[in-house]
Design brief:
By secondary structure, the chain is an alpha/beta fold. About 40% of the residues lie in helices and about 25% in strands. GO terms for molecular function: beta-lactamase activity; zinc ion binding.
Length: about 325
């Protein structure tokens, strides 16, 4: 039996979601158990280097987007993906500069952004993050959305410098202002503003072109995601380059579209809750059909995303 183009496309997208979900899940557990990260085959993963502004780059591989500031003062990294990719990431950075990696800032605690911490920490890189990132990495966590227990991270992977509100780096001719946003994707999210370069790295408070994962078991919330988007929009201009936690290099206009999607989904979900519609009936009604083709083709399926939003707004366990 030959499959038509729609059926083939559906099967391909289903496989893609499975692979991406597996990678995210392994990234989460890799925080405290690097052997699990080894189960994912990263041998074919290539690190793509995307110039963003003078001395600023975005590295794309498997997991969260990496930000790099390179210059005479050395390398400042934002996030580090998975442990098995560390050498490939270091090689990509070596193509940019021969200066050493001095600082690594984690935008939050998830393993697809912190999986390389132990490798870099053992190499002498100073790891920096919000207080809650070290707190969560220091003890066992339970990821409700994935029904997975995350072991505590090894000492070398933990941030050695933490902050509770803001911190500023002065490197490579850049003022790198880092600030904590109220619980959004998690309760330890940080956004970075490279002021002179007019570049913002949002971490996972912004998923470009896809439904975001909101980790409510780590303090995240829909309203927090919207508040974080508003903070970034207040900083961004029409020329600002935005490095999202996931997705392609972005800008203010695209972030506004993302915010509108979140508002629409929130409002539709709240309206259903107010009417007494059950979660099952709500999902069955396909309330985001107009968004799903664009936003629901990644690891966070429409059903999974709506379940998280519904439970958050209804405050269900």
């Amino acid at each position: 039996m030959q499959l038509g183009e729609p059926e083939v496309k559906k099967q391909i997208m289903g496989l893609r979601r499975h692979v991406l979900a597996t990678a995210i899940g392994i990234g989460i557990v890799s925080l405290g158990c690097q052997s699990l990260a080894q189960q994912q085959d990263f041998s074919k993963t290539e690190i793509e280097t995307i110039p963003v502004a003078e001395g600023i780059y975005m590295l794309v591989g498997e997991g969260g987007n990496i930000g790099v500031s390179a210059g005479e003062d050395g390398v400042f990294m934002v996030d580090d993906q998975f442990a098995p990719l560390t050498e490939k990431i270091k090689a990509a950075i070596a193509e940019i500069t021969d200066k050493p990696i001095r600082f690594l800032l984690n935008t939050h605690w998830h393993g697809d952004h912190t999986g390389g911490n132990e490798n870099l920490g053992n190499a002498g890189v100073v790891i920096v993050a919000h207080d809650q990132v070290r707190e969560r990495m220091s003890r066992e966590q339970f990821m409700e959305a994935f029904q997975r227990t995350v072991p505590a991270s090894p000492k070398a992977a933990l941030p050695v410098v933490t902050f509770n509100d803001t911190t500023t780096f002065h490197l490579n001719g850049q003022t790198i202002h880092t600030f904590h946003v109220e619980p959004a994707h998690t309760d330890g999210d940080s956004v970075l503003h490279f002021k002179e370069a007019d570049v913002i790295h949002t971490g996972d408070v912004y998923f470009n072109g896809r439904y975001p994962f909101i980790d409510t078991s780590s303090g995240g919330s829909v309203e927090g995601m919207l508040a974080a988007a508003d903070k970034v929009l207040a900083l961004a201009t029409e020329t600002t380059k935005i490095i999202p936690g996931h997705g392609s290099l972005s800008n203010r206009a695209e972030l506004e579209v993302y915010r509108k999607m979140l508002v629409d989904v929130r409002d539709r979900t709240q309206a259903a809750i107010d009417k007494g519609t059950s979660l099952e009936d709500f999902i069955a009604s396909k309330p985001t059909a107009d968004y799903d083709e664009k936003w629901g083709q990644d690891f966070m399926s429409p059903e999974k995303f709506l379940t998280i939003v519904y439970k958050d707004l209804a405050k269900q366990p």
